[in-house]
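subagent[fold] <- orchestrator: predict structure for attached chain, return tokens only, no commentary.
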Amino acid sequence: MNTSNKEYDVVIVGGGWAGSLLAYKLAAANKTVLVLESGVAIDGVTSSDDNDQPETYQRGDFMETFYLAMAKTPESPYVQNYNAPRPSVLDIRTTAEDDKIPDNCNQPVKSIDTKGYFIQKGPMPFGSTYERRGGGTSWHWLGTSLRLLPKDFKMASEYKVGVDWPMKYEDLSPYYDEAEYEIGVSADVEEQAIHGITFSKGYVYPMAKIPPTLLDVAMTTGLKNFHWQNIEMKVTGTPAGRNGTPNKMKDGTYYDNGRRQCQGNTNCTPICPIQAKYDATISMKKALMTGNVDIMYQAVAYDIKIDKLTQQVTGIMYKTYETINGGVKDTGVVTGKKYVIAANAIEAAKLLLMSNAPFGVANGSGQVGKNLMDHPVYLAWGLMPKSTFPFRGPLSTSGIETTRDGDFRKTRAAFRIEIGNEGWNWPGGAPYTQLINIVSPGGAVAHGDRNSFGSGLRKQIQKDFTRQFRIGFLMEQLPDANNYIVPSKKCMDNLGIPRPEIHYDLNKYTREGFKAAADAAKAIFSQLKVENANTPPVATGGQFKYDNVTYYSQGAGHVMGTHRMGFNKYDSVTNADMKSWDHDNLYIVGCGSFPTTATANPTLTMSALCFKAADAIIKSF
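subagent[fold] -> orchestrator:
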């Protein structure tokens, strides 16, 4: 695609979730938009003939790769692209284990294969990952679409920890409505009105809540009127960005986004085989249909050009490549009136810090790259007393949200409890690991016999697999300047672009949350008469000791912070519209904008913030 003689109204870096939503809303307002996407094209989501794309992939390609993968991780359907690499959960090790592996930084492909994309500096590894391709990480998101709580916006004011957001819940509420309709969220308004969450009069979600699974019902019944530390352990449906039964709209019609209903494959993460779950290629297709959007795939931004006099952004430098294993094909620059950095929080911070040396772009506050956060996860798993038949339905349909707020947030992290329908898949690699152990003469079987086959094997599967159960505690993490990313000075990717060097740890506030989560899990298991598995998880890279107890932290895939919003140019990177304090024509969007994490999965809030930023950009012309 030749863009050399064309100036766009808006240039967006990133064709993932945030970039797709922004492109769609800006194009619908008749703004011309160019999207630079570092990854490969997805079949049909292009602004030129597919034959013009150096590489294209289809959902079917991803599904086949997923089926053939030995480890069914979030990244398993998606092959590594050494020109736009991404991290993998298989590369998350303790820092001590990681230090034993040579970095091989002079051989990028070998280095990424053996050590992983991240340069982990510890003291703990950062456990979350993301994708770099058309549609971004929306390819393997779970679908959970929770709103933040009103008090989540004012942690400093309410609990004297963290910082406040430069907006209130009421400011974002109409954008939540807009995001829920774009994604197509299935939920019940009355059920979601907890902890002060309100909805506009007469509001209904696009679709009715996803029906509970047998496990959800068993937990609802078993935990009825049960309290832990004076908190009712009430099970409620989880809002989901996947198709259920359409609701009736105010005009009498029924919501219809043209997608199929969920078929309950239980592999929402890493991939929905039929696109019943929303992914960002849906919004990008709509953006392209306006005729106002061009998208360049395999174009990796590496430098943001700044006019020294005006401090305006004047262009984005990029490198292109032919194949995912090849090197640089060409370089170029694209220009526009406004610019938006819409990459993943780590990639966005890296790009900002790589540009305008030595200070970086939008970094007058020194906050770019700082306050890297996640929802560190505590897993608990065991066997229910009776069969609840996991491995069917969406991966998660219910949770416990009553633990998300309270005065305890003054001293320890809050959490939400996610109920998983995938048995021991996350903590134990089920069903594959357990099956191998059962049929193997030397298998490590916690329950029943090893070396089973025939009818004995069937009975063992019926006895154990149908009772497998896990819950996950998604932990709040506060902003901390000691958790940060910088571009590596030593290790590059295959295009010669620095890889992210990450410094990360869990502070006392979060570790106290883990301690509380372990206590809550013990109480829940006792109430439900669950037989605790009492084994370490398969992924132990995030292990740490606190009060002489070993915990295993898992990444949630919720990469937040690194370019936070704030009230002034001294403590933050952007204002509440996600406009840079330092550069009048630059916006920085995505989960990196979050000042604090709270406990809700961040995607819905990130989408609402994108629509808010889009409105501000449109008004600025």
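orchestrator: received. Logging for downstream: The longest strand covers residues 328-341. The radius of gyration is 23 Å.
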